Amino acid sequence: MSEHPEPAGAPPGPAKDPMKSFRGVQAGTLVIEAIVVALALPVVAQLGSGITSAQGWTLIGIAVAFVLCCGLLRRPWTIWLVLGLHAGLLAFVVALPAVAVIGVVFLAVWLWLMWLRRQVAIRMAEGRLPGQQQGTP
């Protein structure tokens, strides 16, 4: 007998947790984003008037926070933290426009990921995921 019995009339749960694998996609995106932000530092330092220490440390802090968020993706509030970090990147629009562009690009990626997550949750609730389908012999 399973730990969490299915309610009568509910579609069967998937054999594998699709949200667990989706968290892997999110973690990979966070790592890539941290790498891009960190690699942008030397480039941005050569553009225009350069980069100040405060700007550099803030960007390094944001990159480290992206990596740390990988371990927190099980918590529902982590998505809001990630979006807040993107707001931090967008705040550089006047001082470092190149960093703001990185923020816009990855914000679009995260909004798309959130849409995909919603679609998976809807399909899981309706029982339309491939792992929930009855196999034919």
Structural class: mainly alpha
Mean pLDDT: 84
Shape: elongated
User: What's the structural domain tally?
Assistant: 1
Helical proportion?
55-70%
The end-to-end span amounts to 24 Å
Strand content: under 5%
What is the radius of gyration? 20 Å
Number of separate strands = 0
Low-confidence stretches: none
Total helical elements: 4
Outline the biggest β-sheet.
none
What is the helix/strand order? HHHH
State the gist of this model.
With 137 residues, the protein is mainly alpha-helical. Helices cover 65% and strands 0% of the residues.
Task: Draw up the topology in text.
Blueprint: H1 18-46, H2 53-69, H3 78-90, H4 97-126
Helix pairs in contact: 1-2, 1-4, 2-3, 3-4
Explain what the structure shows.
The structure is a single chain. By secondary structure, the protein is mainly α. The chain has one domain (about 20-125). Helices cover about 65% and strands about 0% of the residues.
Identify the notable features of this structure and list them briefly.
137 residues, 4 helices, mainly alpha, elongated
